[in-house]
Design a protein that fits this description.
By secondary structure, this protein is mainly alpha-helical. It has helices spanning 4-16, 19-48, 82-92, 106-112, 123-144, 149-155, 173-210, 213-217, 223-260, 269-280, 282-297, 300-328, 336-357, 364-369, 376-383, 390-418, 428-436, and strands at residues 51-57, 72-77, 96-100, 114-116, 163-164, 170-171. It starts with a helix and ends with a helix.
Length: 437
């Protein structure tokens, strides 16, 4: 393997000095930050807009329920007809007119309530309006039935089961989703990295093969050395590009926030109001505190170490397969027949992770797929936050890297024959024959 470091260095320098690589390294974070800035600006612009809703309540039962907020102002109209109210709203260009007629019963009123506006109103706005009317209507019906609404509310019992391990550690129902989010983010990052930089390895092999440079290189270098050098060199180039993206993206976000006054973390109006409700609700605040506590209780060091190991192992495993595919074909268009079988295990891993791990992270299906090397980088990363013994994690990593070395041997056999084959697209049957040479 004395040539491996030279091949790795050559491959790395070829990638990082490539004009398209340099351009995309600096252009990609610019595009992403510009996109996030645009979304944040539009969201901020939308949140700054105050909706004025006129309310004409002929029943005089519901008008007091509509209290103005920072984003929504209610203008209560009195002593006007419906037609006059419509004209007033249109002339003042208010958001809309809520009309509540007078009727003999609450049911009759509910059937005749209307909302007039120039355009279709927001679903969130309508849900809030309907919720206020429904609460008031319920209390009125209870009073008419001789029941005290406050007493009824006091009789309601909200069950919030406290979750706790046998070791005394408190957990939360929302914590399960938090744990899955950590594993899902790691799995998705690996998935995207494999697709982007795996294709880069494959294109590199195809380019050298079609330019006949490979014929000169292979005369002095073993195929397995050339294969590993391409995988390692491209991997290092990808990591370099990824780190540059993080640095440039962070700097650009800080600059955009400071210079243009755009809050890059600007949330939706509904999310902001939800957070206000959480701060005013002791039960919800307690739930949030438990989630924050679970974040601190996550095995962060374990997650970080295993993420690095599974990330490297998973990428090397799939990278060797991408290189083998590149050696077997003459053009990128010929790779389509091989791409689906290659990507299916990754897609299966995502499916198992999101639909099986969350249901039963320690079930048979979850455990089996966390040991299969083609799915373990995703599934095991999703399982670790739920508590997986270290020996199982190490066993999965060992199987992954062991499979990588075996895959490299088989890929090198395809590579050895395929890089010198021109003008013919091999079938799966021929690839099997190459493995026997």
């Amino acid at each position: 393997m004395n040539h491996l470091s030279l091949i790795t260095k050559r491959e790395y320098l070829n990638k990082v000095k490539n004009k398209s690589f340099i351009i995309m390294t600096f252009l990609s974070p610019l595009i992403m930050v510009a996109l996030f800035a645009l979304i944040a600006y539009l969201t901020q612009l939308n949140n700054d807009k105050v909706r004025i809703i006129s309310v004409l309540d002929e029943s005089s039962l519901f008008a007091s329920e509509f209290k103005s907020t920072e984003s929504t102002k209610y203008d209560i109209l009195t002593s006007v007809t419906l037609e006059d109210a419509k004209k007033i709203v249109q002339e003042s260009e208010n958001y809309g007119l809520l009309y509540i007629p007078k009727a003999d019963s609450i049911e009759a009123i509910a059937d005749k309530i209307k909302f007039y506006s120039e355009e279709s109103p927001s679903l969130i706005v309508m849900e809030k309006i309907e919720a206020r009317i429904e609460d008031k209507a319920r209390n009125i019906k209870l009073k008419n039935s001789g029941l005290d609404p406050e007493l009824i509310d006091a009789l309601n019992v909200r069950i919030n089961t406290n979750l706790e391990t046998f070791d005394g550690e408190k957990t939360s129902k929302l914590g399960g989703g938090l744990k899955l989010a950590f594993g899902g983010a790691a799995g998705y990052l690996l998935f995207m990295f494999i697709i982007i930089y795996g294709n880069m390895i494959m294109r590199s092999v195809i380019e050298e093969k079609t330019s006949r440079i490979i014929e000169v290189i292979i005369s002095s270098v073993k195929p397995i050395q050339l294969l590993l050098g391409k995988i390692f060199g491209t991997s290092l180039a990808g990591i370099t590009q990824f780190l540059i993206w993080i640095v440039i993206g962070g700097v650009l976000m800080a600059v955009v926030s400071a210079v243009f006054g755009i809050n890059m973390s600007e949330g939706q109006m509904a999310q902001q109001e939800m957070m206000n409700q959480v701060s005013n609700n002791a039960a919800m605040q307690n739930e949030v505190d438990l989630v924050i506590q679970e974040m601190w209780n996550l095995p962060l060091v374990n997650l970080m170490i295993m993420f690095i190991l599974f990330f490297i192992g998973g990428y090397l495993l799939y990278g060797s397969l991408y290189a083998a595919i590149g050696a077997a074909v003459d053009s990128e268009t010929d790779t389509q027949q091989f791409m689906m079988p290659l990507l299916m295990p990754l897609m299966l891993a995502i499916y198992v992770g999101f639909f099986t791990v969350i249901e039963n992270p320690h079930g048979t299906v979850s455990q089996v797929f966390s040991y299969i090397p083609f799915t373990s980088p995703v599934v095991m990363l999703m399982r670790i936050p739920f508590g997986v013994p270290i020996w199982q994690q190490l066993l999965s990593v060992a199987i992954l890297f062991g499979t990588f070395f075996l895959t490299v041997i088989f890929a090198a056999k395809i590579y050895r024959v395929g890089i010198l084959m021109y003008g013919k697209k091999p079938s799966y049957k021929e690839l099997v024959k190459w493995l026997k040479y």
